[in-house]
Amino acid sequence: MSHLMYSTENDRPISRDQLAMIPTPEGRGRFHHPYPFGDYVEDVALALDRSGIEILGEEYAVTKDHQRMFGVMEIGAKPLEGELITADEWKLLVGVRGSHDQKVQRGIVLGSSVMVCSNLCFGGNIGKLNTKQTTNIGLRLPGLIRNAVAQIPQMAERQERVYDAYHNTNLNARGGDAALVEIYRRDGLSSAQLGRAIHEWHEPTHQEHTAEGWSAWRLMNSVTESLKPTGANVNMETVAHRTQVTTKFLDEVCGIDF
Q: What are φ and ψ of residue 61, in 5° steps?
């Protein structure tokens, strides 16, 4: 699956079973109440299961000192439980994170493009939830998780309509060039990324992106290819920001207001 980004060599991939074995430290004060990583992930998994949503794949990582946890789940509908909208060309993801050292809030992000990274970059294009590890978090968090998970089918349906609009909006070759320059002007691309995006727009690495001709879908994928992280010193916050800029611009171009 590999949707989880590792920022340093100190990050350790870990299974859900191993996550449950990590000890939970004592609180650092009256208002600090660490919540076990294993319990947190199980709460999310249980809420998904009760909503008829299946975890198709999952991956987690912890920092070397076991103080912070990050994870991503790829999800889909369970058979016979109603259909959760998915497509071959995009995946629906749930990102989770948390810490025992008060540095990171417990959080969930939902989206077809979720970024969860141990450098604290945490974002999704559909929804986001954060909460501090204060008194009664053990009572509050399961309810917050259930409320977040309950929104997934509606969010997935909206995302499907957005991508349908991208597929059905034609820009023509020069219009796409101008659109990429405008994304660059809005700080959605660096100058080097702009050059790569223009190349991807005209000669896509993945031929399936050309299926609808010069579409907004093709343009989105040309930007996505140009934003793919390379090297160890990538600023993931910048990648997340530029992805959001591109999405907002394309929504404007396609007249998306739902």
A: -145, 150
